[in-house]
Amino acid sequence: MKKEIFLKTIVLLVFLLTSVCATLDTHLFVYPSISRYLLLEVGAIVLIVVWLFKSFVDKGSMFLTKCQLFVVMWFGYVVFHGFISQTCELYRTVYLCVTLALILALANLQKRKCISRSSVETILLAVAGLNVVYVILQKVGVLVSGNIYFEVTGCNESPTVTALYLVGCLPIMFDRCKDSTRRLALYVFLSLSVVCIVLLRCRTAYIGLAVEVVVLLSMRLKSVYKCGRVNAFYLCMVGVVFLSLAFVAGYKMYSMKQDSADGRMLIWKLSAEMVVDRPIGHGYGLFEKYYNLKQADYFATRDYSANERKNATFVFMPYNDYLEHGV
């Protein structure tokens, strides 16, 4: 019994420290990103080792569900792709593999009762709360932004990372608001998180937030429909309203950062061409290198519009997960 309690405590502390170190810059390295990524990998590897050790001691299966099997296949693809491609950036490949293995480790540690879902969610919400505090203090001028090009960024150098993380935590907050005795505090936390998402000015986060709202409303309408209180005309009107709002919101988000949006059109076009030219890809972590060579060749040898030339710059990512994996 004492060994089980000790193991649970170790797992909980490691996950807590890993989450904090992946959020805050420890100033142990020159670049903040190294501190976050490297310490995250160290904590993830510890949790993976604990999972494998626990599985070996219990002499049980790995509890692979269909979703987890998909993660295993993704892991295998990344490793296999590293072998068949001419080259790859080892650091990013290892980081991706370790992160995927961490998902499996947490899922199986939860099934083996080494850590509870509630504990994982609480730690994730604590990190979200830390980001909310950072965004608010940066907005009022108490803290300095992590990036000179943005007024607020949260605990990260990019406001996009913080905004997407907060959006990802919203369903947990909403779920806890329904049953918790501290409902008022959670609603305040939820409201502040939404405000911070707006302040971070991330269009991807806005889309994610809109999708979450649509899912919640559809679930609500589904329950009402089962009770026989909704007719076809009402559903059609709701659909028209949603489509109208989506069109207006899409235009507003495009106008909010029009040059950035136009620049991404070129990135997506050239990235798609790169996938067609080399279907097996260039190797994980090498998008930055090969895309910018492709873009330079595009402007040197092909016809381009004035708008494309105006918005072109050095590119670090394709702003699309599917294209990034394809390249």
Description:
The structure is a single chain. The protein is an all-alpha fold. It has 13 helices and no strands. The chain has helices spanning 2-21, 32-58, 66-84, 90-111, 117-139, 159-179, 183-200, 203-226, 232-256, 258-277, 287-301, 306-311, 321-326. Helix 3 packs antiparallel against helix 4, helix 5 (117-139) packs across helix 6 and helix 10 crosses helix 11. The model has no long low-confidence stretch (mean pLDDT 82).
Question: How do the helices and strands line up, and which of them pair or pack?
Answer:
Elements: H1 2-21, H2 32-58, H3 66-84, H4 90-111, H5 117-139, H6 159-179, H7 183-200, H8 203-226, H9 232-256, H10 258-277, H11 287-301, H12 306-311, H13 321-326
Helix pairs in contact: 1-2, 1-5, 2-4, 3-4, 5-6, 5-7, 6-7, 6-8, 10-11
Any descriptors?
327 residues; mainly alpha; 13 helices; 75% helix; globular
Give a brief rundown of this model.
The chain has helices spanning 2-21, 32-58, 66-84, 90-111, 117-139, 159-179, 183-200, 203-226, 232-256, 258-277, 287-301, 306-311, 321-326.
